[in-house]
Write a structure and sequence with these properties.
Layout (H helix, E strand, L loop, with lengths): L2 E11 L2 E9 L5 E9 L6 H18 L9 E5 L2 E6 L5 E2 H5 L6 H19 L16 E3 L5 E3 L4 H5 L1 H7 L12 H4 L6 H17 L10 H14 L5 H8 L12 H14 L5 H19 L8 E3 L6 H57 L1
Antiparallel strand pairs: 1-2, 1-9, 2-3, 3-5, 4-5, 6-7, 7-8
Helix pairs in contact: 3-7, 3-10, 7-9, 8-9
């Protein structure tokens, strides 16, 4: 029997929690992996698993380095989960919250990510796109490697809802370009725009903020944010300006952006990504290993997806909650009547008291 042991938390996001894990095979062999348990996914469970598996096959056939896709679809305590290659590092969401990255390191992150996207976009016969590029989906390792996570995971999990909402369901809307927010069809240029927003946040240490649907306001924000970057980061600002365009047709391709970021990195001062990561990433990883835990960490699960005791307990709690709510619905009318009578009684006492005082004033005041 194959089993899965969740050892520690690697990250949390809107899609679920990612764990470092070990899979024990029936023949006694073991392998390390990362497992994302998608507690928020629902709907057509079989369809979800089929789409996740299909995304994994597509990426495996494409052989795109630096991009982690689905290697296996699992089930953990009744929740859908996916296994990927284990990559130890810190996601850009945590890094951005600590302030701007050094200029050269930031440009090198941009060059690496744009390179990954360019390889995805060049796959034939059907070009691929990530369509969920955001800080929490990018990991930097202690040796300065840049990995793009969750290819196909979010899109597979929300495919049915996307059909009805034109894609407005993945992650945060802040990283979607204007044409998607207005109902357009996603394509590769969605990734280029997301890369621009992500790198602007990484360069400035400031969140992009809520999306803007008005063209002039959008362009004004872009101009203001780029102008606010320090003068030494001007080469970065030039590249970012070519990604954060209102019209998708005006944006640079990922391949051109990779070349431009690499050229910018060569002209920028400060530590590069490898030097910065060597001193910054490991302490962040050590803190995460100490602080992060939950009720799944340290447990072993049967990969056949059998119903576990905790799932039964969750069902029991749900049934108890339903029963409690039914009781409340029965009691509520009685409570409402009592409350009305109490209010009327207080009002009557107030009126009676006012009448007595008025009569006394009239009798004794004459």
């Amino acid at each position: 029997m194959r089993t899965l042991t969740l050892e520690r938390i690697l990250g949390r996001g809107a899609m679920g929690t990612t764990y470092a894990a070990t899979i024990a095979e029936a023949d006694g062999g073991t392998s390390s992996c990362a497992v994302k348990v998608m507690k928020g996914a629902g709907g057509d469970r079989q369809g979800l698993r089929e789409r996740l598996a299909a995304q994994g096959r597509v990426l495996a056939e494409a052989s795109v380095s630096g991009v982690l896709g689905v290697e296996e679809v699992l089930e953990v305590e009744g929740w859908d989960a996916v296994a990927t290659t284990l990559v130890e590092g810190i996601d850009l969401g945590a890094i951005v919250s600590g302030g701007a990255l050094p200029a050269k390191a930031c440009a090198e992150v941009g060059a690496a990510l744009a390179g990954h996207l360019a390889m995805l976009h060049a796959v034939h016969p059907e070009p691929l796109a990530h369509q969920d590029l955001k800080p929490s989906n990018v990991i930097i390792t202690a040796v300065g490697d840049v990995w793009l996570l969750d290819f196909g995971v979010a899109r597979a999990a929300y495919a049915e809802r996307e059909d009805k909402t034109q894609g407005l369901v993945l992650g945060t809307l802040n990283y979607f370009p204007p044409e998607i927010l207005s109902g357009g069809t996603p394509d590769r240029r969605v990734d280029v725009y997301g890369l621009g927003v992500l790198l602007l946040e990484l360069s400035s240490g400031q969140a992009w903020g809520p999306p803007l649907m008005h063209r002039e306001r959008f362009m004004r924000r872009v101009d203001q944010r780029l102008a606010a970057l320090p003068d030494e980061r001007a080469p970065l600002a030039d590249v970012l300006g070519g990604l954060l365009c209102w019209e998708r047709g005006e944006r640079r391709t990922a391949a051109v952006a990779a070349q431009d970021f690499a050229a910018a990195a060569a002209s920028l001062p400060g530590p590069g990504l490898v030097d910065w990561a060597a001193t910054a990433i490991e302490p962040m990883m050590a803190m995460r290993r100490v602080l992060r835990s939950d009720d799944l960490v340290g447990r072993t699960f049967d990969l056949k997806g059998e119903r576990g005791p905790e799932q039964d307990q969750r069902s029991d709690r749900s049934e108890g909650l339903t029963s409690d709510r039914s009781n409340l619905r029965r009691v509520f009318p009685v409570l409402a009547v009592c409350a009305v009578l109490l209010v009327l009684g207080l009002a009557g006492v107030t009126v009676l008291s006012a009448g007595v005082l008025a009569l006394g004033w009239y009798v004794f005041g004459l």
